[in-house]
Amino acid sequence: MHSKTIAELAAGLKKGDFSSEELTKSFLQRIKQFDPELNSFITVSEDHALAQAKTADEVIAKGQVSALTGIPFAQKDIFCTNGIKTTCGSKMLDNFIAPYDSTVIHNFNQSGAVMVGKTNMDEFAMGSSNETSFYGGVKNPWDTSTVPGGSSGGSAAAVAARLVPASTGTDTGGSIRQPAALCGITGLKPTYGRVSRYGMIAFASSLDQAGTFTQTAEDSALMLNVMAGFDEKDSTSIEKDLPDYTANLNQDLKGLKIGLPKEYFGEGLDAGVAEKVEQAIDEYKKLGAEIVEVSLPNSSLSVPVYYVVAPAECSSNLSRFDGARFGYRCDDPKDLEDLYKRSRGEGFGAEVKRRIMVGAYALSAGYYDAYYLKAQKLRRMISEDFTKAFEQVDVIMGPSAPDTAFNIGEKSDDPISMYLSDIYTIAANLAGLPGMSLPAGFSNNLPVGLQIIANSFDESRLLNVAHQYQQVTNWHKQIPEAFA
């Protein structure tokens, strides 16, 4: 059962081939068996999951079935979950039990889905390798000496190893698409504002967006149908008509115009990755798509712009963790200043501290105009590049990451090299655009990801383009041998 997709499992539940309780127990057993090696979960909520599964079986027996009723999922440990620990991978929140559900969790609960646990992640979603977590790093199921990517590495590894059929993640600068690429699964980042951020612990408020990890684009569509929608509790949520994302999956691609940014195929791209991406694009040609070269001339500025904007927003968002209200509190503070300093100093990890300091500097008097304001102007230019490109093409394609999964510890002491892991993904966040990573083959026995970017709120087209590719390839069906 573990190799089946959401769509296949839903059909089995509807026909009575197995119950949700049986299905949930099966995946919980796989987590117990395999996760000690991967460390992809922070919390396994077995009792909670079995209670939800029992309720789902009662609903199914009455014939009141939705697409996700009774399906086990994992949630990234960034979504507040009522009565269950929500840590953001940080010592700062190691003792935090949320008193309410995030909108994403609420929507899954309403759909009848089963949450088996909360997945490991880079601390406060800051990282590209899942090595900054207070709970230890996550290993890539394809080669446990390598990283799974980050920050949503736990969610990606859990799906790649088939410990769960699907999981949620968040993407601030590539934190869904990059780990999806490194773990050989399908990752979707929707348009900014399409999925509510309420109850999703903030890193960078103008960039963060919740999304999905699945085996297939069809499963991504099923999940997005549940996750997406306007939420009055989120000031960044967009009030816009919500389509059925499964409706156009089977539309053919004849006449589709695919833009290939010349900036994405130059220096810094691994030759093996480039070869697999080019082979994937050849498949699209066979499907009737037309290839057009486009330019995103300011894309090279994405990394420096991101590492001004994101740290600036994180320094503001993380100021609430002061040891006074909730979260970690130092022992025996001498006074209020000592409480603040030691609680934050002891509660945050090195990467989080680095970004807080960078952000505070960029926002400080005398430097705001030179750094933050200039970064926002460049952000607009990056967004305008996409606007011009989408006047010529329907979607943009390229690599999801410049190379395959790197060794654990390889980039830990080199922040710049680590930051460049997201060089192809950050621009979509800065522009608020939807993007996906699809499995596109292997280089040196490690997965390669194909990135597809669509125009704002054009997730239906994005999913259609992804689904059609997966009808003529089987990369998304590959499972790491040790977990098959």
Describe the structure.
The protein is α/β, with parallel strands linked by helices. It has helices spanning about 5-15, 20-40, 45-60, 105-110, 155-160, 175-185, 215-225, 270-285, 300-315, 335-345, 350-365, 370-390, 415-420, 425-430, 460-470; strands spanning about 40-45, 70-75, 115-120, 165-170, 185-190, 210-215, 255-260, 290-295, 395-400, 435-445, 445-455. It has an 8-stranded mixed beta sheet with strand order 4-6-5-10-11-9-7-8, with helices on both faces. The protein has a 3-stranded mixed beta sheet with strand order 1-3-2, with helices on both faces. Helix 9 packs across helix 11 (about 350-365).
Concise overview:
This protein is an alpha/beta fold and 484 residues long. The protein has helices spanning 6-15, 20-38, 46-61, 103-111, 153-160, 177-183, 217-227, 271-286, 302-317, 336-347, 350-363, 368-389, 415-419, 426-431, 459-472; strands at 41-44, 72-76, 114-119, 167-171, 186-189, 209-214, 257-261, 290-294, 395-399, 435-443, 446-454. The strands form two sheets. An eight-stranded mixed β-sheet has the order 4-6-5-10-11-9-7-8, with helices on both faces.
